[in-house]
Amino acid sequence: MQHLHEHDWFCRGLSPASIYLSKDGKCVLAPFELAQPLDAPLYLAPEIQRGSPHDPVADVWTLGAIVYEMCAGVPPFKSVDEISSGAVPRIGGRPGSLTDLVARMLSSSPESRPSIQECLRSVPRGSDPHPPQRRSEDRFMEALRSRGREAYEEAMSLFEDGLELSPEQEAEACRLAVAKGWSMMAEQFEEAYRPEEGRTTMLMCAAMDRNLDLLRRYVHERRMQDENGWTALMFAAQAGHLECARILLPEAWIRTTRPASDLAEKGTVMMLAAQAGHADIVELHWPYECCGKDANDHNAYWYAQKAAKNGERIREILDLEGQGKVRRRENIPAIEDILGRKE
């Protein structure tokens, strides 16, 4: 792709289906001049979806979507409407340098994306790009993310042989085993699992997945933050999971510690929800997080200007904040009160 861009060519129609491995393990692109935009709409950059002028950074967005799927096992977006919203989902259980790079690649703003040269410089290369055998841990995680009897049998076989998983992989494996009902595996992972500040927690994973049962089980992990300062509530708000956001309301007003997914340092849940176009979550958090500003002196009303959906409704909710005529409510409900009311 770098070679193509250096010669003023770009692919536009790239998708996982057009990437092949040769017999000697090299990655090969299918004839890109034959690719049609409608073949894989979930891998087309937003500006192409809109019919706007575009350039080689559209390929960077597509590559970001493909890398996301390689890491998470699923595409980053389920529909064209989700792509249009501009909200970039986070990848759980992966190094921050990689997740931050993918988030930048998937930015809805072409100007905010890195060039393909920057992408290559951002990710360290291993000494052997084509290892002869995949690690057992990687095969286990792939089987765990897959469906079917064969995937189950492979995952159980690798699990019984013993694995050395990273803390992020353990959290994801525990979440997936619980979700799949693999009780023996889930129990062992839960016994060994220890939440750590600065890492993805089970509560964050439950919020991403809209898994309310798992979320209630791990609600004691509230107020913990990952390496970017994100909380479980932020993941729920980004994905538009209103019920999860209600339960996690006590995490309101916690700030991010680093910029990520187009949210600046010192960003809040309401800014994230406003940008993603989730009006119900903005309305829920408005009394508690109004008047806040990020490290760039922007408030939620400013983020609402970028919302691709429900923007008008969100701006109506935040109108008083935009005018600076509102005061924040200080008494955030306790988690015990929220869970008591829910049950």
From TrEMBL:
Transmembrane segments: none annotated. Keywords: ATP-binding, Kinase, Nucleotide-binding, Transferase. It comes from the Eukaryota. Residues 1-133 form the Protein kinase domain. This is non-specific serine/threonine protein kinase. Pfam families: Ank_2 (PF12796), Pkinase (PF00069). The lineage of its organism: Eukaryota, Metamonada, Diplomonadida, Hexamitidae, Giardiinae. Gene3D superfamilies: Ankyrin repeat-containing domain (1.25.40.20), Transferase(Phosphotransferase) domain 1 (1.10.510.10).
